Amino acid sequence: MKQLNFIDKIKKIKIDIRAYTLIFALIVIWLLFGSLTGGVFLSSRNFSNLLRQMTIISFLAIGMTPVIITGNIDLSVGSMTGFISVIAAYLQAILLPTFLPGLFPALSVELLGIFSTIITIIICLLLGLLIGMGQGYIIAYGGVPAFIVTLGGMLILRGGLLAVAQGKTIVPIEDSLRVMAQGYLTKYPGIIIAVIAIIILFLVTLQSRTKKTQYGLKIKPLSYDLVVTSLFSAIVLGFVLVMNSYRGVQIPVLIMAIIAVMVTYLTNNTRFGRHIYAVGGNKEATKLSGINVQAVVLKTYALMGLLCGVSGIILTGYVAAGTTSGGMNYELSAIGGCVMGGTSLMGGIGTVFGALMGTLLMTSIENGMSVMNMSVFWQYIVKGLILVLAVYVDVTSRKNKSL
């Protein structure tokens, strides 16, 4: 019995090591680029820029994770983001300014701008949702492979983007929309949010332990959970303090964190989330168990479309314009971030946290090479090699498990 207990402990240690491998790799990469750039990479200003760079791709990676877990793919997310971005710019720069002042003559210019931003956000989110549902319906109920549907969607949406932009950059963008992508929280609101987040972390940990005890499930020692929660709390507080040393916590990063928490809860603590993993693990067995596989797939693409809407809105605010190159190759970065974070292209395995870590890892490598003034072609080569390596590791680990 003692030998078996020792073996069980060793297995648990292996699982923990594998779960935190990305964090260790990220720290190593940060230290490497920090030394190669004379500390410039590790400056609070560069970290702020790094996190801002990853937000747009992170929205797509968060939505791509459930899609890939079900065993599907979405190649249209980059073009959808770009298309929604130019729609947002067209609404703010051309369409809404023509009739909003006539409808609401009593409103000031500032209030008209805020009202324009609210309308733009609602329309763009609904547009992304409808496009995602349309593609999901064809895949789920039409039986057309996801690769073909989303590849066609990528081409159609890229054509739509060019048609709306007509080869021009669409400006200007309202200040209220730009704040969403370029704004910062001041020092004290950032600290207050950090304290609230830490309190929530401890409450969730204690609530999880209570539920597991009620259902008779095995729980880890209280000291272990407290140490892990304290570690994450220290990361949250450290992040806020580092960001406050520059200009404060970025608003788009805060939006990304909120959406990540919501989707993580959706995938880990709801029936729909369990169905996502079931479909990816064994589609036929899931059907036989009475789960509506088609509805699950449709919902994952609807979520993906909604997050493309968020990404397109943030992209418009970040660039402060609608451009013809918006969203170019974003789908590759999103898929790469998911795969780097441990989401299996074969389905059934993946987490939102892993996708975010993978995206941060990819963005860190890209940012580090840019700070070093490395040629663009080398950046593409390195990112491609890393992506192939990540897929190779995933396939190899799957084969070893099946033996």
From TrEMBL:
Classification lineage: Bacteria, Pseudomonadati, Atribacterota, Candidatus Phoenicimicrobiia, Candidatus Pheonicimicrobiales
Cellular location(s): Cell membrane
PANTHER family: ABC TRANSPORTER PERMEASE PROTEIN YPHD-RELATED-RELATED, XYLOSE TRANSPORT SYSTEM PERMEASE PROTEIN XYLH
CDD domains according to UniProt: TM_PBP1_transp_AraH_like (cd06579)
Regions crossing the membrane: 20-42, 54-73, 80-100, 112-131, 138-157, 188-206, 226-243, 249-267, 301-321, 333-362, 374-393
Keywords of the record: Cell inner membrane, Cell membrane, Membrane, Sugar transport, Transmembrane, Transmembrane helix, Transport
Entry annotated with the keyword Transmembrane: yes
Keyword Protein transport part of the UniProt annotation: no
Source superkingdom: Bacteria
Alphabetized Pfam families for the sequence: BPD_transp_2
Function of the molecule: Part of the binding-protein-dependent transport system for D-xylose. Probably responsible for the translocation of the substrate across the membrane.
Protein name in the entry: Xylose transport system permease protein XylH
